[in-house]
Amino acid sequence: MKYLERAINFITRYYILAVPLFISTALAALLGSSTTGLLGIIRSFTNEIRFGNNFFAEPFSFIKLFAASVVASGLGLINLLLKLAVNPATYGMINKALDEGYASIHDFVPQLKNNFAKYLIYWLGNIVVWIIAVICVGLITLVGSLIVALVKWAAIRVLFILFIGLLFFIAAIYIEVNMALWFPAMLVDHLDVISAFKRSFSIVKKNFWMILGISLLVSLVSSLVNLILSVFGIIPLIGSIILSIMPTVSTFLMMVFYLMFYKDQRINYFYQE
Q: Percent of the chain beyond pLDDT 90?
C-alpha cells in the first residue's frame, strides 16, 4: 500500500499534469455520446432490412446511413488518436517529475515527441498479444467442443461453456496484470517492445497479487464515485464532463503507481541478474 499512498501524494502535488488526460477523457465521452446516436441510425437501417421493410422508400435514407457510418468511424478514430497522443505524453511528464522533482504542462509536447513512437509500438504489441490469446482460447474451445459433442448429457455441455468463460476471464486478468509494467519499462529503460514485455512479466510475477489488489481497489472506488456522480449524467454536455473526472483520476493514479513501482523494482531486477 505504500506505493498507492505515494502515488496519491504525487497526484495531489502534480494534478496539473492530468489536465490533458481529463480533456481527452471528456472529449471521448462527448464523442461517444454522439457516436451512440449515430449507431442508432445504423441499427435502424439493419432492422429495416431484417424485417423486410423498404428502408429506401424514405428519401435520402441511404445517404443518412452512409453519413452516419462515416461520422461514427471518424469519431472512433479521433478517440483513438487522442489516446495515442495523451497517454505517452502523460507518462513522460510523470516520469520527468519522478526523476527531476519537477514537471509542468509545458512538458506535454516535448514528452509527446519523445514517447509517441514507443507508445505506438506498445499499443500495436498489445493488439498482437490479445490476438494470440484469443486464438489460443479459441483453439481450446474448438478442441473441447469436439469432445463435448460426443457427450450426450446437457449438463456437461453447460459446465464446459462455463469453464471456457471462466478460463477466458482468468487468462485476461493474468495477461493484463502481467503487462502492467510493459510501457514503463520501455519508457524508463528505453527497452525494445519484446524485452520490455519480458521484464514486465519478470517483475510482476513476484508482485502479482499486490498489483491486482491495488488495481481492483482503485477500480472499485472509481466505480462507486462514478455511481454517485451518475445523477449528473442527465445534464447534456456538463454531465459527460463531470462523469469524466473519476476515470481521469483513476487512470492518472495507476500511471503514477506503475511508474513508481517499476522504478523501485527495476533495481532489484538488475541486482538479481
A: 47
Q: Which of 164, 246, 177, 247 is nearest to 206 (CA)?
A: 177
Q: What's the distance, CA 116 to chain centroid?
A: 17
User: In which residue are the cell numbers 479459441 written?
Assistant: 138
Proportion of the chain above pLDDT 70, given as a percent:
75
CA distances (Å), 115 to each of 122, 178, 201, in order? 10, 22, 22
Instruction: Please give the angle made by the CA atoms of 12, 253 and 111, to the nearest 5 degrees.
Output: 90
Q: CA 95, CA 98: separation in Å to the nearest integer? A: 5
Residue burial 177-216, b: 16+ Cβ < 10 Å; e: rest: bbbbbbbbbbbbeebebeebbebbbbbbeebbeebbebbe
| Helix (DSSP H) and strand (DSSP E) numbers for the chain | 10, 0
Indicate whether 82 pLDDT > 90: no
**What's the chain's average pLDDT?**
81
**160-189 residue pLDDT tens:** 778 777 888 888 899 999 999 999 999 999
Distance, in Å, from the CA atom of 110 to the CA atom of 91, rounded to the nearest integer, reads: 12
Backbone angles phi, psi at 235, to 5 degrees: -80, 120
In angstroms, the CA 194 to CA 121 distance is: 10
One DSSP character per residue, 133-159 reads HHHHHHHHHHHHHHHHTT---HHHHHH
